[in-house]
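We were asked to recover a plausible sequence for a given structure. The inputs and outputs are reproduced exactly as logged, with field labels preserved.

PROBLEM: sequence recovery
POSITIONS: 138
GIVEN STRUCTURE:
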């Protein structure tokens, strides 16, 4: 029960931080992949993806540095695996308890379950993964 409350608190805080970040962007043109990442992931993983988000200090274990995914995979970005991790189809041992939001499920709740909504969910996941691919260190 306590773990469920902690997860809900982290998700709520994530959405609050994302909403604030979105407001602060104002009318500046933003890459849709980066905007989606900032909205759903930056509170934990940080704006730069290095695991230094505003709530990261509250988390054990610390959020992953997402800029090193390709480096840790022999120089090739693990696109399909990253999709599976984000949408919850593949657990990540480094997360310990599954405290990372299962975004596939959350997006489905936000968007409903029609075929069009399933495409929207997949699109959001792909935008996030595209952004992660773009921020990999060499």
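RECOVERED SEQUENCE:
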């Amino acid at each position: 029960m306590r773990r469920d409350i902690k997860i809900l608190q982290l998700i709520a805080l994530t959405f609050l931080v994302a909403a604030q970040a979105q407001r602060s962007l104002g009318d500046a043109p933003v890459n849709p992949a980066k905007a989606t990442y900032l909205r759903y992931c930056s509170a934990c993983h940080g704006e730069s993806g290095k695991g230094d988000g505003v709530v990261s200090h509250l988390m054990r274990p610390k959020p992953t540095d997402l800029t090193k995914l390709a480096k840790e995979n022999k120089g090739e970005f693990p696109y399909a695996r990253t999709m599976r991790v984000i949408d919850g189809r593949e657990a990540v041992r480094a997360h310990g308890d599954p405290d990372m939001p299962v975004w596939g499920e959350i997006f489905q709740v936000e968007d409903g379950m029609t075929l069009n909504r399933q495409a929207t969910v997949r699109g959001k996941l792909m935008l996030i993964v595209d952004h992660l691919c773009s921020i990999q260190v060499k």
